[in-house]
Design a protein that fits this description.
This protein is of the alpha/beta class. The protein has a single domain (about 15-289), classed as Alpha/Beta hydrolase fold, catalytic domain (Rossmann fold, 3-Layer(aba) Sandwich), CATH 3.40.50.1820. The protein has helices at about 60-65, 90-100, 115-125, 150-165, 170, 180-190, 205-220, 245-255, 270-275, 275-289, and strands at about 20-25, 30-35, 45, 70-75, 110-115, 130-135, 235-240, 260-265. It starts with 19 loop residues before the first strand and ends with a helix. About 45% of the residues are buried.
Length: about 290
């Protein structure tokens, strides 16, 4: 197990206060944050496109870290992690495996969002016994309909955000009605306003573009056999996800035996963030079973 910290240190249960640590694997210095009580199977968080450690919603992380050891990390070339972003989802999954094993874990639970969910599926395809429980949110399967169109939509919404001096996630993750706009502002404030010191390095533009290329390849790739995902799986999304179409959540639910599906009304790609008060306890309960 990870011997990075003493057993006697106080348990940190707030993501905003979690210190940033580093572990080296395959020549990459991976940065990560951990919180919650140590021991048992950790919950590893897989983050979305263009996101660093600072992009996780503390309302969701903290709800899970109340009872579980939570680890969030930056993939290779993302934020303060060293190296270059790989151009395939499978290579990102190999990096994730290197990171997890470098910390000394051979069994984990996974909480993933968007690109993170794609990486998690590729990880399980290669290492089916590594993951005990799986949470897939705002994501889709390999070869899923219209996943290869994510890049075009992302660039369009970034332009809209630039013109209105907004955070791109307000356009990409939320509906542009009054409810969506309110939820977007609140979410951006939670992820950018809470942690003022020890923030992560920004996502490099080159790495962001490489991630988009990897998503396009994944969208055009040969589908995974999702019947091989035998771990208990919770799938969640909004009913109007423009980035990774909501129908793909239903598709995964049909193909992953025994999976549970939650679709939130009047919400987009960031449905779990808009409905964080409902979703956080659902996710925590699922992961604690």
């Amino acid at each position: 197990m990870n011997t990075n910290s003493s057993q006697n240190e106080a348990v940190i249960t707030s993501y905003v206060e979690a210190p940033t640590r580093t572990v080296t694997a395959n020549g990459v210095n991976f940065v990560y944050r951990e919180l919650g009580p140590k021991g048992g199977i950790p919950v590893v968080f897989f983050v979305h496109l263009a996101a660093t450690l600072d992009y996780w919603d503390p309302q969701i992380v903290d709800a899970i870290a109340k009872d579980r050891h939570v680890i969030a990390f930056d993939q290779r070339g993302v934020g303060a992690s060293t190296g270059e972003v790989p151009d395939t989802i499978e290579a990102m999954a190999a990096d994730a495996y290197a990171f997890i094993t470098a910390l000394g874990f051979d069994k984990i639970d996974v909480f993933s969002f968007s690109l993170g969910g794609m990486i998690a599926q590729a990880l399980i395809a290669e290492h089916p016994d590594l993951v005990r429980r799986l949470v897939l949110t705002g994501t889709g399967p390999k070869g899923g309909k219209d996943i290869d169109k994510v890049a075009g939509m992302t660039y369009r919404d970034i332009l809209k955000a630039t013109l209105t001096r907004s955070d791109p996630r307000e356009f990409l993750f939320f509906n542009r009605d009054a409810t969506g706009k309110r939820a977007a502002k609140a979410y951006v404030q939670r992820t950018t306003g809470a942690r003022t010191e020890g923030r992560d390095a920004p996502m490099p533009l080159k790495g962001f573009r490489t991630q988009l290329k990897a998503i396009k390849k994944y969208g055009r790739g040969t589908p995974h056999d999702l019947s091989k995902l035998t771990q208990p799986t919770l799938i969640a999304n909004g009913d109007n996800d423009r980035m990774v179409p909501s129908v793909l959540s239903e598709d995964m639910h049909r193909r992953i035996k025994g999976s549970e599906l939650v679709i939130y009304p009047n919400s987009g790609h960031g449905g779990i963030f808009q409905y964080h008060e409902d979703f956080a306890p659902v996710a925590a309960e699922f992961l604690n079973r």
